[in-house]
Amino acid sequence: MLAELLERHQHEFHSILPVDLNAPDVARLDFTAKNQLVLNADLRDTDAFEALVAQLLAEQEAHIGIGGYLENRVIYRRSPGLFGSPTLAARSLHLGVDVWLRAGTPVMAPLDALVHSTQDNNNFGDYGPTVILQHQLEDETFYTLYGHLTRRETALLRPGMIIEKGTIFTEVGPAPENGDWPPHLHFQVIADMQGLTGDFPGVALPEERDKWATLCPNPNLILRSRILSD
Question: Where do the structural domains in the chain lie, given as residue ranges?
Answer without folding.
Answer: 2-228
